[in-house]
Design goal:
Largest sheet of chain B: 2 strands, antiparallel
Strand content of chain B: under 5%
CATH topology of the largest domain in chain B: Serine Threonine Protein Phosphatase 5, Tetratricopeptide repeat
CATH architecture of the largest domain in chain B: Alpha Horseshoe
Oligomer: heterotrimer
Chains: A little secondary structure, B mainly alpha, C alpha+beta
Order of helices and strands of chain A: H
Shape of chain A: flat
Distance between the termini of chain B: 79 Å
Number of helices of chain A: 1
Distance between the termini of chain A: 53 Å
Shape of chain B: elongated
Largest interface: B-C, 78 and 52 residues
Number of strands of chain B: 2
Number of domains of chain B: 2
Helix content of chain A: 10-25%
Strand content of chain A: under 5%
């Protein structure tokens, strides 16, 4: 029957409002338990 | 020994990076000296040096104080590998040969460590190195390698970018959990890495999709192989939870990837993973507004979106398949002999073990059934732009009769496979969702079934219910069809014999 | 067929690699104990977000290291934002919080029937919403004053922090970076006071990082031109 995904969505940072934010660029780890800290996303500094 | 000398040279490199910034000129001088003095002058020395450096790094990871900087040496290797990717003139070997050699050394050192150490194998240093390579490359490639001042090199790297990910994906594919169970959790973390997954999803012209499909299918195959019906080991269920979360992330960021590849995913998804199935099939295009599926006066006919063709990343029945011609010929002129040919082609000569809900074996080629059903949907979608509504939404049309006859003539497992694959096409508003919901609704009350009617009704309702009794998300098309069936005056579900005999089903349907 | 493996140097270790091909050709019907043990150990060693984080190499210290008390955390504090929360909390606090609070029961955004999926927020397309907006570091930067942002920008060249400082200055504080003189400029528009003929008085300020470390008014003739500004 699967599980209620709301806490998993919450841990992914997929907001409850329908505004979509990209979550994969700051994806810390496949599991909430091992997403202990934020990770440095890709960024770009012009010359 | 030469190996010990390589240890010394590598240790010097590690110490250098602890004293100067990584773009300091002394790092270039150091690399030039390694080239001139034969440490990195040809493939053989390259292999031996990196083998020594890797073994030393993995060893030092194990020896270092876990609360300190455990990755100093590993990080130094990653930096050296990427610097060499940029700096070398690549006259005698190409960039991709170099990268292949380095990844081959990494793979072999890793495999030896994995096989020899057995349960004391620690995946983390190997993970960190591959994670660093993704990071370093991402830093380099920003704004089309604008950091590279030399134009010639910059152009070469820009061309190499695609190859970098091709080669990297090939090695990731070889490191998959079925092959290296001791690396499983690191592997799932790598394929969903923030510097890999979003890049593969968004490489120009979807050129990363094929490799990404391969890796996600490796993950599904691992789950399918080791999910047995009565018990799933704790570790496998944790892998599953990770996979579910990755798919949710993809569905949020790039739903079109799941939308256009749904066939391949359904072909490889363990049949009992209904919630993951729903996550994949509930993906909707980013710009789309979903009308409320329970709205009683919702009709797909009035929805402009239901005339749109869903994108499919490849044609399901490739020309190589033996059945493409008979199916296409049948759709032009339906004949019994063609039907026989198609039916014959669907049955397999040997059983497949399948952890299905309610079945363990499969004597038909379910992937072929899925390909035929989707192919019919694609043909209908194309015809829909030319032919009138009445020609296609018609129980006499060849499209409908082929599906009808496959079910009518088929064994109960073929009946179920065809129906549940049609249910898979009920997704967000598009012409496939619209037409297949017409077909299922028509079939549900069609008198042409004769004494098979109740069996077909049971299979259709089962194919819908199994997708709705699981936790959300639910595919929009399934919800719409089911709520229409509930309200349909031509059928009273509670009167159906298989509902009357099953109180738990009756208890679900009665309140609805 | 991997050309690299043809090299004799791979000869004695290649057997370990080839050994891994067997379960691929012929997956086990039932997971053998050896494999179960390996899977368990993989779960135990599962890499976490710190392992996946960007490697940090040596950076020239800004100033001579002044003695800090031994109680200062050596590992950089990683901030984690519970999505709705506005105050950054450290990992330790979050772990305490998690023990107390039951998992958040909230209506998932997936498939709410009247779900109105709005226009997708591509990265950077929307003025303020981009990949970084929801990270704790970016939120902390929005609390820094200009002085701190300029300090980070000019003294942490090439780092993620410099990027965030520039992003905060440009996106939220509306300053603009001039590629030519590498100064940050700010255009002030003063409405003429009511009663006077309506007009707008434009004046420019720049941050003088070389001498006074102050924001100074530009004298009227050196007004920066548009193409001098970096497109951030």
């Amino acid at each position: 029957l699967g599980a209620d995904l709301s806490s998993m969505l919450h841990s992914l940072g997929i907001p409850r409002d329908s505004k979509r934010h990209k979550v994969l660029y700051t994806f810390q780890s496949p599991w909430a338990e091992t997403s202990r800290s934020e990770v440095e996303p890709r960024f770009f500094i012009p010359e | 020994t030469r190996k010990e000398r390589y240890f010394l040279v590598f240790t010097e490199w590690v110490k250098l990076l602890q004293r100067v910034e990584t773009d300091d000129i002394s790092t270039l001088v150091f690399i030039r000296q390694m080239m001139e003095k034969g440490v990195l002058s040809n493939s053989d020395s390259l292999i031996e040096f990196f083998k020594a450096a890797l073994e030393l790094s993995v060893f030092s990871f194990k020896e270092s104080d876990p609360t300190g900087e455990v990755f100093t040496t590993i990080d130094a290797i990653g930096k050296l590998i990427t610097k060499l990717l940029v700096l070398q003139a690549f006259s005698d070997i190409s960039r991709s040969e170099y990268f292949n050699i380095v990844l081959s050394v990494i793979a072999v050192v890793f495999a030896k460590d994995h096989e020899q150490k057995y349960v004391t194998f620690n995946e983390r240093p190997h993970f960190r190195l591959l994670s660093n390579l993704l990071y370093e490359w991402e830093v380099l490639r920003g704004h089309d390698f604008i950091k590279i001042s030399d134009n010639q090199t910059r152009r070469e790297l820009s061309e190499f970018d695609q190859e970098f990910y091709d080669i990297f994906s090939t090695y990731l594919h070889s490191l998959q959990p079925i092959a290296f169970p001791g690396f499983s959790f690191a592997w799932v973390t790598l394929i969903s890495h923030r510097m890999f997954l979003p890049t593969m999803l968004r490489l120009p012209k979807k050129s990363g999709w094929k490799n990404l499909m391969l890796l996600l299918i490796d993950l599904l195959n691992f789950l399918d192989t080791y999910t047995s019906k009565n018990e799933v080991s704790n570790a496998v269920s944790v892998v599953y939870k990770g996979a579910l979360r990755v798919f949710l992330g993809i569905s949020n960021d790039n739903p079109e990837f799941l939308i256009e590849n749904h066939l391949e995913f359904m072909n490889n998804l363990p049949p009992s993973y209904f919630q993951l199935k729903n996550v994949i099939l509930s993906s909707i295009p980013k710009k789309m507004m979903l009308p409320n599926p329970y709205d009683s006066n919702l009709s797909m006919e009035k929805l402009p979106a239901c005339q749109e063709l869903p994108e499919v990343f490849y044609d399901p029945i490739s020309d190589s398949s033996t059945l493409k011609k008979p199916v296409d010929n049948y759709l032009r002129i339906p004949t019994n002999s063609l039907l026989r040919t198609i039916l014959h082609g669907i049955y397999k000569t040997e059983y497949d073990i399948k952890n299905g809900v309610g079945y363990d074996l499969l004597a038909i080629d379910s992937n072929l059934v899925r390909a035929i059903v989707l192919h019919i949907g694609i043909e209908v979608g194309l015809e829909n732009q030319k032919m009138p509504y009445s020609a296609l939404f018609n129980a006499k049309s060849a499209y409908y009769t082929l599906l009808f006859n496959l079910i009518h003539e088929g064994t109960v497992e073929l009946k179920y496979q065809v129906v549940q694959v049609m249910a898979e096409q009920l997704r967000y508003p598009n012409i496939h969702t619209y037409w297949f919901s017409y077909v299922l609704k028509t079939m549900l009350t069609s008198k042409d079934w004769g004494e098979q009617l109740v069996d077909i009704q049971e299979i259709i309702l089962r194919s819908l219910l199994e997708r709705l009794i699981v936790n959300k998300p639910h595919a929009w098309g399934i919800s719409v069809l089911f709520s229409q069936i509930i309200r349909d005056k031509n059928i009273n579900l509670l009167e159906l014999p298989f509902v009357k005999n099953l109180p738990e089903i009756k208890n679900i349907l009665a309140p609805l | 067929e991997n050309a690299a493996f043809k090299n004799p140097l791979f000869k004695d270790d290649l057997k370990y690699w080839l050994q891994s091909k067997r379960p691929l050709m012929q997956p086990y019907k039932k997971m053998p104990d050896r494999m179960k043990a390996q899977l368990e150990s993989s779960l135990l060693n599962c890499p976490d977000s710190l392992d996946a984080d960007s490697p940090h190499f040596y950076r020239k210290p800004l100033s001579l290291p002044h003695p800090t008390s031994i109680f200062f955390p050596s590992e950089p504090i990683r901030f984690v934002y519970p999505i709705d929360n506005v105050n950054p909390i450290s990992v330790q606090e979050q772990q305490q919080q998690e023990q107390q609070q039951s998992p958040v029961k909230e209506q998932s955004s997936l498939n709410k029937p009247d779900d109105k999926r709005t226009e997708d927020k591509n990265i950077g397309s929307d003025e303020n919403e981009d990949v970084y907006s929801r990270t704790s570091l970016a939120r902390i930067f929005s609390k820094f004053d200009l002085d701190t942002l300029f300090f980070i920008f000019y003294h942490y060249q090439g780092t993620y922090e410099q990027f965030l400082a520039a992003r905060e200055l440009a996106k939220n504080r509306k300053w603009r970076f001039n590629k030519k003189d590498r100064r940050w400029y700010y255009k002030e528009v003063e409405k003429s006071p009511p009663g006077m003929p309506q007009g707008e008085e434009e004046s420019w300020r720049y941050f003088d990082y070389q001498r006074s470390w102050l924001a100074r008014r530009c004298n009227s003739e050196i007004v920066p031109t548009e193409e001098d500004f970096e497109k951030l």
